[in-house]
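Could you help me review a protein record that somebody else here produced? This is what I was given.
***
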Amino acid sequence: MPNDASRAVIEIGGIGQPSNGLLDGYAMNRLIDRPQRAVSSVVIVTSPKAGSGLGREQLPHLVQQLGASGLSVCTTTSIDVLRERTQDIQLDQHELPVVIAAGGDGTLALVADNVPSAIPILPMPLGTENLLARHFGHSADPAKVIQTIHEGTSHWLDAGRGNGKLFLVTATCGFDAEVVRAMHLTRRGHISRFSYAGPIFRALRRYAFPKIDVRVSNDQDPDSEPVNIECGWAMAFNMPCYGGNLNIEPRAIDSDGLLDVITFRKGSILSGLRYLAGIMLGSHTRFRDVTRVRGTTIEFTSPRRVPYQLDGDYGGHLPLTIELLPARVHLLLPPGR
């Protein structure tokens, strides 16, 4: 969010600035002035790999209904076209295009990384998990998408940037990232949850849980010392979402200006199964070998080749450096959210 807008909110609301000169996510979402949007154009960005079946069949119906309502519609799979459509927008204009990210969490993060933060983004869930869209109650129903365009609520979402790539939900390294890596190497077209069965089974047989070193710093608190942790599996959450409806870090808040890190110390298949059982029962946060800490800058390193993933997309091998971007994404939520 630009500094001039932040100052305007401060003058109206009387809330002090944090040390970085920006409003925290809570203050931004409470106080920012949201005039009625005059929407005249919509850019729909789709991923050729995301979703299949009834979900994708909604796209032509959405385009038709948007056109019938008098809106200018551009549908593209090209990030270059997206940039061309949004790069010249003035931040003080009341009339902004709405960008619809039609795909999964990876598509949404890619779209958010390539548009100015003032432009509202609306997820249309067509992916395998759709963690963010499910969390906020978004739908692929064209009528509901159009209703959100005109009546939705603005929400300023924090984001993380890992090794230069934006993510909105989670970044992890270790066992689950190995599963994602295996899926990345074998993926052919659309996937479902069942597609992960093979990679999970192979990871259970072969993954050795190499040591991971974690360093978490909190730039919001100048008096805090960095926290160093050694573990076999590590995750950073911006939102309390994970695939399979697993609730791994329930206290993560998407607009608090912090990332929530959770680490699992022991590295073996048996301990991994124990952690998974604890997660499914909701008791893992009480394990003595599970550490939870919050911060704004996170470093994951390892002397071995350990994979990492960002929002379900394979990113590569450690090291991974993450920085928090407060209130980076302007999200449109369904009416009443």
Notes: Residues 34-151 form a domain with the Rossmann fold fold (CATH 3.40.50.10330). Residues 15 and 29 are 13 Å apart (CA to CA).
